[in-house]
């Protein structure tokens, strides 16, 4: 039976960027165990959110590239992602609708867990096709 490990953002960043090389090589050894079926990597939605932030702010990566890399990773054999359908929809919306990942996640989460109504002042929710309004208007 494969051992399951929760992974932190910095592990995924090494996988996606290969930077810094020494840490990426260490992660590569872990990935060999995943490919051999010895390990299963587990990811929380918060880790995905932090990955989006680090890749966009520190690495100045484009949201489409971030989305593509994280979608590929969350679909990898030996990777379990909490709320996978929600996370993957949020990653697609993040790239396609030019919104922050957190807003995309809130909208995808609300759609998956009705009611879909979101209280916010953020106008980006218009792009996410979800009912939203200020608190006083409900």
Automatic annotation (TrEMBL):
<dbReference type="InterPro" id="IPR050556">
    <property type="entry name" value="Type_II_TA_system_RNase"/>
</dbReference>
<keyword id="KW-0479">Metal-binding</keyword>
<protein>
    <submittedName>
        <fullName>Putative nucleic acid-binding protein</fullName>
    </submittedName>
</protein>
<dbReference type="InterPro" id="IPR029060">
    <property type="entry name" value="PIN-like_dom_sf"/>
</dbReference>
<keyword id="KW-0460">Magnesium</keyword>
<keyword id="KW-1277">Toxin-antitoxin system</keyword>
<dbReference type="GO" id="GO:0016787">
    <property type="term" value="F:hydrolase activity"/>
</dbReference>
<dbReference type="GO" id="GO:0046872">
    <property type="term" value="F:metal ion binding"/>
</dbReference>
<keyword id="KW-0378">Hydrolase</keyword>
<keyword id="KW-0540">Nuclease</keyword>
<dbReference type="InterPro" id="IPR002716">
    <property type="entry name" value="PIN_dom"/>
</dbReference>
<dbReference type="Pfam" id="PF01850">
    <property type="entry name" value="PIN"/>
</dbReference>
<comment type="similarity">
    <text>Belongs to the PINc/VapC protein family.</text>
</comment>
<dbReference type="GO" id="GO:0004518">
    <property type="term" value="F:nuclease activity"/>
</dbReference>
<feature type="domain" description="PIN">
    <location>
        <begin position="7"/>
        <end position="129"/>
    </location>
</feature>
